[in-house]
# Entry
Amino acid sequence: MSDKILIVEDEVRIVRTLRLYLEQAGFAVTAVHDGAQAVPAFRQERPSLVLLDLNLPGQDGLDVCRSLRRLGDVPIIMLTARTEEMDRLIGLELGADDYISKPFSPREVVARVRAVLRRTQGGLTNANLLQAGALQLDLAAYRVWIDGQLLDLTQTEFELLATLMRHKGHVLSRAQLLEALQGVAHEELERAIDQHIKNVRRKLKEAVGDVTIINTIYGVGYRLDEVELPHA
Ligand code: CA
# Structure
């Protein structure tokens, strides 16, 4: 049975294009045009993935995302009109699985839908597990492994790594990382982030040697990349 995709988007032209490409790619597609219809459609259709526009008439995409999250762990890809919105979304820790900025190519959307479905259906059904290459993190058990080896991280280091893993492939600024650590970190200064990152890197290195997993993006922040270890 083909995966069903729910599109929540008010621009008819975009819906038409996405539907065309997704159906050609073998997906079943249902679409609604405002936020208020999203949750009822979700309950009725039980889609495998939701493509969710940020700017919707009535209830906006952020509220819809939160409502869907309360209903379960369906993969959600947010569609946003501006890059600044993307930054805001990432900072908000909404629990979306990916973000695509407009204008996008429909082919890219299909590729991202496939990638998110592969990731979320690839055996990691437990919403508490995060995976990025050789890194695996269990939010419930508060444990993290690299290449199967348990790492001994402080609470702050753990939260930092979890945040980077949730947004792997995306650059997060020090301010965004600090925001994600609210309620955990005692340090108020962004500099503290650098020290924690340094500690996380050292511990990763002790476990698996000199592999670049967390990249420094000069003047911006940090990005965790999916790295496969040669023997993993
Ligand atoms: Ca819109």
In short: The helical segments are 12-24, 35-45, 61-71, 83-92, 106-121, 155-166, 174-180, 190-208. The chain has a mean pLDDT of 84. Residues 10-11, 53, 55-56 surround calcium ion (CB under 6 Å). The chain has two domains: 4-127, 133-224.
